[in-house]
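User: My instructor asked us to take a sequence, write out its structure as tokens, and then describe one feature of it. I'm not sure where to start. Here is the sequence I was given:
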Amino acid sequence: KRPFGGENSATLISSILRDEPEPVAELSPGLPQRLGDTIENCLEKNPEERFTTTRELHAELVGLRGEVTAGQAEVSRTRSKATRLGFGARVLLAAALILVIVAGVVWFSSQGLGGSTEVATQGPQIRSLAVLPMRNLSGDPEQDYFVDGMTEALITDLSKISALKVISRTSAMRYKGTDKSLVEIATELDVDGVIEGSVIREGDRVRVTAQLIEAATESNLWADRYERNLTSILALQSEVAQAIAREIQVTLTPGEEILLTRARQVNPEAYEAYLKGQFHFYKLTSSDLETALQYFELALEKDPDYAPAHAGTALVWATLSQFGLVSPAEATPKAKAAALRAVELDSRLAVSHSALASVRAWGEWDWEGADEAFQRAIELNPSDPD
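Assistant: Let's start with the prediction itself. The structure tokens for your sequence are:
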């Protein structure tokens, strides 16, 4: 019996992280207590409470095997036939044998014994990814903006890897709430792998579960859970991207390693206002653009040095001008000032350069300057379609 269950991979991961398995003694009343304790120890959620190495588990299983052997001898003496072992001892023998074999295989593999490990070290050939919209497990639809923001952040971080093609936010968000299979989605987007996950926000704490699935086999290549305060949310996003990069064994340039590892702490109120600004900006209506601008300005009130909010402000003014809602004479200087400030604060933020490029191209008709800024944005984020 599997200790955890779920209707899909996301709920299964949630069950693994949250639920306690049914006690082994209830599942098999005749099972010796020591074996039950060993199994439950392997299922402890706190890593510090589990066996820390396969050597430790192996030693415990050897001890169990010794008890089984002694038990067999006693039964043989009293009953004259080893085949009269009780149900509990038979279960113990079978379970111990299986666990010893598994532990032995893992241990020998970790020691480089028992043959070549060349096949095991070859990662899956994934060079294109789609990050599907993460699920909002908070039970509050008002948190959709936050979950969408987490999805976009992961797309942005992965897009910094030049060896990896990452599907854009616009294409990925079409699958929000879809009932299509992962194979169908991967085929439509022409990708090797798919990332799906969920977000739970409780106050200032955020828990993210994510998993990487190989499209061709629908096999789960990697899954993990992360929990942080909002102040460290940027570090959380970078950690997920780095873990995925390691799993699929893509080669990172020194610059890309820097981009993925650098993550400043952020003012939670500024970050939340920024995500709400993004949420409204993407709707591209006149009222939503005005609302987005208000949220970006609120973010800058909370943290005047928050570069993404300056970049967002620049994009709003540039878009208002392009839509004919504000005159270029009013919008262009404001957009340019915000974009330059964004670049000044964080020259490695691709959106800062693309915002500046938009202002130079459509506000100032500065083709050479726009080309320079666009090229820099592409260097920093090769998969950014904008």
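For the description part of your assignment, you could build on this observation: The beta strands are 128-131, 135-136, 165-166, 193-202, 205-214, 219-229. Try explaining in your own words what that tells you about the chain.
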